[in-house]
Design a protein that fits this description.
By secondary structure, the protein is an alpha/beta fold. It starts with a strand and ends with a helix. The model has no long low-confidence stretch (mean pLDDT 95).
């Protein structure tokens, strides 16, 4: 029996009632038993400043980079703001992209997006995929999970209450674990 996969998750929303963070919690519950998922906190990262980079990088950045570097795979959840990912997620990626060694390098990854709109964050997902190419992140291609009208699919307590969305998330997590094991061979 192989060891459990360690997956770290980044939510691009800091809102307490975030549908994207709720989607990560749903993924935690729906993921195969051979993996553990940890939602990482990006709320303490300062705005990126090159003068604070390198040996002067904030402790929160270094701790986040260490967690990502030691993970087997990544799970991103992003809202769509102005046809792109959120500023807080972009800021985290900017900090992490500058770390040596590069913590994202050669990592398998998956994306979930949740939005109150009818497109479910599709443009944000494609922006994120494009952005991460330079960091050599290997995204699962299918299934794509874009949760449209998220306010109708999660309860006020942030619990997923839509069986079709749960099925898509479950399939994505299975695809991510399978993809991760394939890349580890």
């Amino acid at each position: 029996m192989s060891r459990k996969l360690q997956i770290v998750a980044l939510s691009g929303s800091l809102r307490a009632g975030s549908y994207n963070s709720a989607a990560i919690r749903a993924a935690m519950a729906l993921a195969p038993q051979d993996c553990d998922i940890e939602l990482l906190d990006i709320s303490q990262l300062p705005l990126y400043n090159e003068e604070l980079d390198g040996e002067h990088a904030p402790k929160a950045v270094l701790a986040l980079a260490k967690k990502i570097a030691s993970a087997d795979a990544l799970l991103f959840a992003t809202p769509e703001y102005n046809y792109s990912i959120s500023g807080v997620l972009k800021n985290a990626i900017d900090w992490l992209s500058r770390q040596k060694p590069q913590p994202f390098s050669d990592k398998p990854a998956a994306i979930i997006s949740a939005s109150m709109g009818i497109l479910g964050g599709v443009r944000a997902q494609y922006q994120l995929r494009q952005m991460m190419v330079s960091m050599d992140v290997h995204f699962v291609n299918k299934p794509e999970v874009m949760i449209a009208q998220a306010h109708e699919k999660f309860s006020e307590l942030g619990e997923l209450n839509d069986s079709q969305t749960a099925e898509f998330i479950e399939k994505l997590m299975l695809a991510l674990t399978d993809w991760t094991r394939r890349l580890q061979r």
